[in-house]
Amino acid sequence: MTLREGVKRPSVRLRDVAERARCSAATVSRVLNAPETVNREARLRVEAAVRDLGYTRNGAARALRSRRSQIVGLILPTLKQTIYADFIGAVQDALEERDYALIVASSDYSPERELFQARLMAERGIDGLMLVGLMHRPDLHALLDAQSIPYVTTYTFRQEADHPVMGFDNVASMASIVDHLVELGHRDIAVLAGRRRDSDRAEDRIRGVAAALARHGLDFPDDHTVEETLSIPGGREGLRRLLAAGPLPTALVCASDVLAYGALVECQRLGIAVPADLSVVGCDDLPASKHILPALTTLAIPAEEMGRRAAAYLLSCFAGSPHAPRMCFDTRLMVRQTTAPPSRAPRPGATAP
Fold first, then answer.
1. Which residues of 249-272 are buried (b: 16+ CB within 10 A; e: fewer)?
2. pTM exceeds 0.85, yes or no
3. What's a Pfam family in this record (predicted)?
């Protein structure tokens, strides 16, 4: 048996750090919890003592004293794509500044699994919870209200929503995409989206395209909406289904960049030139979108700002300080190389009045 295996080292206490740093235990506590209130010399001594002794705070004991775990939960629809990477990073950075940790789970687009994850997090004492979208089991809000757990919804915004929300209007955001395509001369526009039964964001994005087309006096036949899983294979299959339903439209609005990637791959396989034969637009502005060839025209969503604001809202709830419970952020169309004027006439009946 090695020394490491057989002997348990005595735990380092707060007063041990104070003795090493030649200060009071209260000063050590202030350095750990509010370092800006301690002068630089004392703070550096305490930080050095913490490193040298390997001191870690007893989170369980602190949670019992403060009735706070210093943990925030986040339940995402999926962790299989990079869609939420910037959002997670912004949330984590904002929480860490106030000494809170973030735990992340995935519902895999299942309201039942989301409720299960939320219940587990609540049982483990999370201080707050972040959600995505407005499609949740009613039991979820009842659970959070019963446990007095503050929560906030992200990635969507509806005026009629009665829950705290930091997001953007998916319906209105689609208007800039449709306006751009119409200005280029497109009259035959289709949509490739996620499954509406899984996501209110998919529903809103389809409704947004339909509303914008109607405003321009353009028709939107049923066979011009294809729903698929949010993945590159889903984008490839979606394009194949669109082609099987009838003539190729002149433009395709994809409700996510990963669907657009799949559509572009399938266009290359089938010899469909983008944007000469088909203009393609995505939604998310993932990091790869400006680097692929051709670079993807896409809708940039305010992921980092949403993350910071959602974290700020929960932190304000914890502190008992005021913060607006509803904020709607702007999106921005990034025009790149996958959109151009149509090179062929639209199908009959697809012209504007």
1. bbbbbbbbbbbbbbbbbbbeeeeb
2. no
3. LacI
